[in-house]
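Input structure tokens:
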């Protein structure tokens, strides 16, 4: 919740309603995660405890399912991307396939452009910390709406409301507020 440790401790609000066709994680994984988080209500979570919490989630049937997903994705990646790569050749289809396989991309909120440019010069290894993941569906919707532009450095910049507390707002009302 506090990527790059820019803030002191913060309260975290956990949404417990799982939307239909949740695009990011399987329903069972979200339900199990909510169960683990409910047991922590009101507690400060030390970063060293995160692995213990993850281990509680990824056991039993979830671990088996996850292992199958990872191995299947690795096989598909090898067959559909790696087997078609050649030195010094570029292929836009492979780039699209790469992002499609991970069901998402990272975008830079336009509000962070100046900070991104500063970090690119001063501390380039920190620039990825400014990127925000979006699903493939969100990405293509934003592209269709003309809200994404690619920089010379191949970074997708999104025109959408953003602040460090609420993150990137892609809901319909927020997108209309930004106009």
């Amino acid at each position: 919740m506090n990527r790059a440790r820019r803030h002191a401790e913060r309260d975290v609000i956990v949404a417990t309603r799982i939307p239909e066709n949740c695009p990011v994680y399987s329903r069972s994984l979200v339900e199990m995660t909510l169960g683990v988080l409910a047991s922590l209500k009101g507690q400060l979570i030390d970063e060293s405890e995160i692995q213990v919490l993850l281990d509680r989630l990824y056991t039993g049937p979830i671990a088996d399912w996850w292992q199958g997903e990872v191995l299947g994705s690795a096989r598909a990646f090898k067959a559909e991307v790696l087997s078609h790569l050649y030195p010094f050749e570029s292929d836009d289809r492979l780039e699209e396939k790469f992002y499609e396989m991970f069901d998402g991309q990272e975008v830079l909120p336009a509000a962070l452009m100046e900070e991104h440019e500063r970090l690119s010069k001063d501390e380039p290894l920190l620039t990825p910390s400014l990127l925000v993941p979006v699903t493939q569906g969100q990405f293509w919707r934003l592209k269709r709406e003309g809200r994404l532009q690619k920089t010379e450095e191949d970074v997708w910049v999104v025109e959408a409301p953003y602040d460090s507390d609420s993150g990137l707002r892609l809901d319909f009302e927020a997108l209309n507020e930004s106009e």
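Residues 60-80 form the longest helix (21 residues). Residues 103-179 form one domain.
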